[in-house]
Write the structure tokens for this entry.
Amino acid sequence: MQVTELLAEGLKREYRVVLPATELDAKANARLAEMKDKVRLNGFRPGKVPVAHLKRMYGKSVLAEVIDQAVNEANSKIVEDGGFKLAMQPKVELPQDEAAVQEVIDGKADLSYTVGIEVLPKIELGDFKSIAIEKPVLAVADTEVDEAVARIAEANRPFTDKEGAAEKGDRVTISFVGSIDGEKFDGGSAEDVPLVIGSGSFIPGFEDQLTGIKADETRIVKVTFPADYQAAQLAGKDAEFETTAKKIEAPGELTVDDEFAKILGMDSLEALKEQVKSRIVQEHTAASRAKVKRRLLDALDGLHQFDVPPTLAEQEFEGIWGSVTQEMEAQKKSFSDEGTTEEDARADYEKIAKRRVRLGLVLAEIGEKNNIQVSDDEVTRAVVERARQFPGQEQQVWEFYRKNAQALATLRAPIFEEKVVDFLLELAQVKEIPVTREELYAEDADEKPAEKA
């Protein structure tokens, strides 16, 4: 085997490899000799089939297998001799000229091909103990719990039938048929929908026009869909809804006490408050964790600056860019609406893509150097949790992940990342800082959506 380096630029390498015809022929003959004792052909006793006869019958297919194996072995030797870690699978370019290919197959010419590889950079890990970050903390106040319980109570308020016109706060059961320019549209019709007037559940302006409606009365409700409406085909459109009130109900008295808590399946009001408080604590903890993680990743990015494999960066950028442009199309926004240009936006998101790849490589290196692993039990728990998100389809979800290694890797990766983050937070200097709810849940001013992942 003869290897000639053609390119060594950054993390890219390219080689020309020549595999002598004599070596390929020798390997093919050895493979045929192995087949001799296994092949059963009419007219020949077991193990007595001449190799020359096998070569006439199977020579080309065997040589193809030998070439494939030889190319893989040659590429592996290049990687091993160079001490490389591959970022991508090697890109092999075999001869395309039919005459040249035929000469190789006939054993009359050496096989010459090129192989391009992208290698991972050598990462010098920084001093994690030098990282100093602030952790926002927010204690759960009794007023916050009381407000949450009040919202739960309001959502479970009893209603009783009412004679006469509907007022704000009343619940109206309606059926409606929506149309735009006289044409019905998908998702614009529904039957027996309960709606509390003033709840803000429907499109702005819809509920106000139901004030004064009576049971069995039909009205044409005219509204304009918001410009940022989630269904892009409806955003900003004027629509009419032929709306019929089926039933009017007035809100009943609501007493938040132990009896109310028991209706919700709790032993007492105090138990309900404890459950609500626990949920709020989880929400605050998750929000705090997200901010701490972002600050930790910022610090890691500052400690580790190196070139990333171009193809990995391109793939990451394409994923981010696709999401960004799809969201903008759905919202019917342009880059000028965002105060930028497509060129500048691409440059920004290319930086974000490189940052994400760089941080991914750093986290992987930290995990490898410190033997941080994800156990099979942890992955199994993740699959079970995922299956629970699809009631009635748990078995199908389980089978999907059991048979799909790539999908399973998507569950393993975030577990690994969180374990590495935990490891780093143990080493870093983390200072707890009391904050308000507004501060805890506010997005960082310089944070782009693509940087959250």
In short: The mean pLDDT is 89. The domain at 276-451 is CATH 1.10.3120.10 (Trigger factor, domain 2).
